[in-house]
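Aim 2, interim progress. The first record below pairs a target sequence with its structure tokens.
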Amino acid sequence: MIFKASCLFFLITFTTFFSLSAQNKHTISGYISDSASGEQLIGATIRMEGSLSVSTTANEYGFFSITVPAGSYKILAGSVGYTTYNKAVTLSRNLKLNIALTSQNNELSEVVVSATRKDENVKSAKMGVQKLSMQEIDRVPVLFGERDLIKVVQLLPGVKSAGEGNSGFFVRGGAADQNLILLDEAVVYNPSHLLGFFSTFNSDAIKDVTLYKGNTPAQYGGRLSSVMDVKMNEGNNQRFNVNGGIGIIASRLTVSGPIVKNKGSFLISARRTYADLFLKLSKDTIVNKSALYFYDLNLKANYQFGENDRVYLSGYLGKDKLGLGDLFALDWGNKSATLRWNHQFSPRLFSNTSLIYSDYQYNIDLNTTSSFQGGISSQIKDWNLKEEFSFYPNTNNTWRFGVNSIYHTIRPGEFTGDLTLVSQPYTHSWSNAFYVNNEWKASEKLKMEYGARISAFSVLGGDNNFYTLSETGTIIDTLNYSKGKIVKTYLNLEPRVSMSYQLNSLSSIKAAYARNTQSLHQLSSSATSTPTDKWVATNNIIKPEIANQFSVGYFRNLNNDNYEFSAEAYYKSLENQVDYRDGANIRSNEAIEPQLLFGKGRAYGMELLLRKKTGRLTGWFGYTLSRTEKQINGVNDSEWYAARQDRTHDISIVGMYDLNKKWSLSATFVYYTGNAVSFPQGKYYIDDQVVFLYTKRNGYRMPDYHRLDLSATKKLKEGKNFSSELVLGLYNAYGRANAYAITFQENPDDRSQTQAVQTSLFRFVPSITYNFKF
């Protein structure tokens, strides 16, 4: 309440000051939407031409506001894929204007979301930002033909796949847990299905995807490396429609329509795999009782109460189930819900209030013998309250400020059943933040975006213990605090600034600095992230991780903005980085703190992007040259060593070609240096059993990875009331046996020799998918 009262006092003071200084000016405000579906258009451009020429873009809710002197103007509004809106107005007072844009292809009723306006990459002050349209995501070939936005994000420069068939990704040297992934503002802690072969995002339900590579605006916090902000579709408020697809491994169905025409709509989108149905055909009783599937469900509804108030309710439920007969079962899943209220106080003051719930958990059931049964359960749960204001004082400034309060509950791993281990207690923490951010057009050539975030992470008492450790990691004292008592609070100031200077109409240079902190940490002992990785919160020993990132870049458009080129370089210093002592076992039930070591890190590199945005042939070429290292006392003689996500080279080529009105083709090629890994350097025997000796952490490399994927789409029928298409795909077209894992074992013919065994997953994987819409 104190935070909110402070915000209200701040905005009242702000509003009063600018009202007095702008008495001869008037404001046009409203929403921009798609005329066929009523979907709000994010990032649509609004331009006013008259005694002066000014422009702005719609925010993530489709809202815009422009303040100009009284007079006659021509209003132009547009977005790529839509016919330009043109209207003459005479401003003598404030005007509310809702604009509905018409798709250039009148036969299509779905929203075609543009990534950005054509020259946004040059003119915007933002840096290290990538936007993807769902149209691009739908056409990029992926594993088993399932459209997957995370797999497409992994093709962008500065973003690296965590490995074959894995939904994890590394951004500018950061680990997989250093990415904040949001679905309608709710945190998604594990964005993967089937151990990472698919992501949790059903593309049919997604409207907009924005990736910030470290240079995040002040409203985002809690992660070091990136923010992937995913917005769900709102549903069609004009008419009912159904679309879906049937594939080899999964099918999906989406239904949307109006609650009240022009006022409210709903969306229901579901997807399920059915590999488990084929297992039932086996004669093996263990196999036919096994489980191998996932499902997810996206729900959203919205309603407009009067001219100034809109309410949104969205939810997500996803579940994975893997099991081997009655012997073993693993399930994990995400649940989230967002209740959001948009309110327009005035033509220049807009607010969003959100109550957000996130829940990720996994369960393992074991039944190996008739006398041994047990299970392990883990959970991370958040309740999140967010209050944010957007203020448009004039055409050169857009202010955004607000407060955010999150209550975290983590169950690191609770053992049940016949297991003789003691359950690990819940941990509780409370994260609060106040932020302010301004987009400022200093001149025609200079633009800036600057702000700051003050974050306070409070460690709370409860049933869990707090330890004091010796220099060697031995527990020398154990303390306990009552539930809800604040044990320790970490206060951090996180300034952010980015700026662009336009050299001419086609090119600009940019520079940025951002400081980010992270207080939730994922502990993983494997080469890639898994659903059972352990999350821990900052406490009296584990401190918040801190990253300071500096970046510069050159941006240029070519051939009438049809091509865009960018070159960005960055340097990131990292504090309070976490790694393990030699021989650590994070799966045990012992206290985790004595098994951890802390130090510093650094990441630096260069990213090149050449993109063709229009014409029959579109796509991009991306290249990343980078290095990621850590220095931690107790690891590799306290010298700098490669982090496991360190890769020198990363190349991606994406091409999409419209052959004719019926056929379109697409292809992707990827190449990257193998991950840094620890291989044994010797071996010894204990009771005639071989034990491998590891002396140098991440001192070796996996083999280089490369792959070509192909896809062809044929439009079977296209009309106003029904359309369908057939998508043919081939993953790993030339059958490269890429290494998923390398293990070491004794040569059975000569025990004095050790042999490396490579495991590869996918070679020549064809797919066929039938998509429909009516």
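The second target in this work package is listed in the same format:
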Amino acid sequence: MKQILYSLFALILLAAAQPVTAQSFALQGRVVDEKMNPIELVTVAIPSQGKATLTSLKGEFRLSLQSADSVVVRFSMIGYQTRTRILRHPRGKQTLQVVMHPSDNLLGEVSVTEMRRQTGQTQTLKKDANRMGPSASGNAVEDLIQSQAGVSTHNELSSQYNVRGGAFDENSVYINNVEVYRPFLVRSGQQEGLSIINPDLVERIDFSTGGYAAKYGDKMSSALDITYKRPTHFEASAAASLLGASAYLGLGSRNLSWSNALRYKTTRYLLGSLQTHGEYRPAFLDYQTYLSYTPNPRWQLDLIANVADNHYNFTPADRETRFGTMQNVRSFRVYFDGQEKDLFRTLFASLTLTRRFSPQASLSLIASAFHTRESETYDIQSQYWLTQTETSENLGVGTYFEHARNHLKAQVQSLQLMLNRKMQGHTLEAALCLKHERVEERSTEYEMRDSSGYSIPHTGGDLNLIYSLRAVNTLKARRTEAYLQDTYRFTSQHGHTHFTFNYGLRLSHWSFNGETILSPRLSLGIVPAFNRNITLRLATGLYYQAPFFKELRDTSTTAGITRATLNRNIKSQRSIHFIAAADYRFNLSGRPFKFTAEVYYKAMNHLVPYSVNNVKVVYYGQNLSRGHAAGVDLKLYGEFVPGTDSWINLSLMDTRMLLNGKTLPLPTDQRYAVNLFFTDYFPGTDRWKMSLRLAFADGLPFAAPHRQLENHSFRAPAYKRADIGMSYRLLNNETHAARSPFRNIWLGIDCLNLLGISNVNSYYWITDVTAQQYAVPNYLTGRQINAKLLFEF
């Protein structure tokens, strides 16, 4: 009987203890910064219980948890130091207020627990992701852009890129809210100098491959938004390599910051690997400065100036190219006479005056000016032999003469008034911009082809040139632009699902053709309650490619002479974007990763057909076609190796346009592309670092010059390239003071085109007396070694 009583008593005690061990408590609170402003989207995690949430727009959070002897709560957010609170025997309702402090060194000792969450169509890229990485162009920001999903390039000498089937001209670029331009007459990557974006000055890189907000202008493909940094103390760096040199000096105090950057680039060493031998004398030089003055919290004055002087001088000598298949090898030999001299001189400046009425409201007046003077002059005669290697049969013998005297001046002045206002859950932005454009063109080009003693085209009696162009044009126009957009962030009723809704309207009017266009755009980002690691994104909008100058040039041929005039009846090209995307963040072996999948469809009409030769885009000058671009972009990003960022992309795309009743691929139709960027440290040390870039992309459609696109099309071979770079950290004074004035010293060596693959960039066309044409491939650079040295002060 006693045993039964003891057993019942033990059961009663056990039942009474069970609710105690399973007792729960409510945790709530608020997360703020040092100025007591709420911080949204902070991750509040309890690792021991596998629970987490995000703070609301008011910085508030709420969780239901199980009690224990101690409960560890971790607060983390990109840009802030991670905070940890330990609750001892929590019961009932617990309330916390956590103050988070900015991180002083994001790349140092701070442990980053998650990647920056993207809730819109613009992603923020790490500006130092490929620093000291291998590069043939020397334009670090564009190298980073070219390795993103949906972006492609087929020329390592160029900073230009295609986005989802768009041409080079369909990408807008902004520096500190001012749209910038590139030279007009550049026709090859060899002529390209330094990009206007100086990586030493860059603080932030925002990039969108489509579905971007109304604040970004009238282009159909992509938007690149660059923010220059404002140094708070003395900093400096100097770098040198076989391809050029650069220097940077930054000064900062409480009210004033001043950045200066000087760059010099020469691709002479790299161009020596081309099959066309001769004397290459490229010299590209630019200077940029950014001055920011804040006399008090209410006013700020910013000045950005850039001066670029780019020269490309070339005297060709000879060339020999073998091409074809194993069973059909052809040899092309050329001897040249003549030279090419090009000049691209650009000036750019912007002045911004900002009045802050409160931390949530500001008004900015932005004045900017762009000026370019360009000249492209060449007289080159070539005598060639095209033979069949197996039989030594002459397929073509003749002379080719090219002449150009192209001169262009362009000026764009703009005045913009921009308003920013933050309210409860809303971020409003509006702007009104007035632009004045003036372009003067004087161009003369002609080509003479002689085959077997006959001038082509051969009529039996007349002496005709195969191509002759004359253009004397002046464009004077005014452009009025305005936009209004709002980013509305809110949570569901129970505060578990977070939404980011961006909507806006853009308006533009151009005096040259009297056209007014309206572009409504919207996007929605969702962080669902069922999984905080998933972000869903939807976007749509109407995007116009407002014509500027090159799209206007309409050609007509009379008596064998082609004349280019400006078409006042041209309309803006139009594209409607439909985008659906999902991001999934996860940890693998304790390291953060993010997988992104994005599906898109672009319906396009009022298209102005164009052809691409190297990096020169030649438009028809009329709205003649319509088409589409559809595809999927996949990207895996993360720390494949602890402490480093790597990624791999896969892009699949299909483009079509209807031109004169025939369906054709767009000239930038790239059906597939794979890009890999991988970084690694040698085992046991962080001094040795390796960077590997791989590109494998489908070849682009090509057509013979001076022919209709719909009649002569074929596809070039795939673009395949591997670049590898090794860098060694000679000195590291990042974490402790030292007598040395240097903060870092890096020594690097790159192997460009590691596998020595001969990629085709364009074609040299040979025409015989029967009008048969042979496409002789122009190959890009071969395998080269580049050494570089970087000092940071």
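The mean pLDDT is 88. This observation will shape the mutagenesis plan for the next reporting period.
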